[in-house]
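User: structure tokens for this one?
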Amino acid sequence: MRLQTRSVQNTGIPTASMADIAFLLIIFFMVTISFEVDKTQVGLPKTELRIEIPKKSAYVSVTKNGQIRVSGGDEISVPVPGPQEVLSFAADVVRRDPSKAFVLKADREASYRHVDGVIDALKQAKAEVIYLLSDQETVESEAGQ
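Assistant:
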């Protein structure tokens, strides 16, 4: 009786679809990621009232030392020298989208002169909606004090 020798099969992990899986994961993360357009660190004033702001708003930030940063809502914020540049920035945003909301994010220790200059610039640019960003003070935080 003659015995046949069996062919040896190579064992291994099929890697043909690994590139497809990696590509799909990259696409997934690119679609689902969201960037924060205004990363200016400010200490916000306290408030009890909270209103949701639109996601694609334009941002204007004023730090406690008077530095002003602007963002159209789609790009990272950039510093500007003063309220005149805020006026030209806001006028350009309003020209492109007249119903665009503006969010003013001012530090609680910022000089009123700087904040008032920014608000005046937004009004002169004919911004229809201006939100003043604040830190919500909840009932639980008041009870803990």
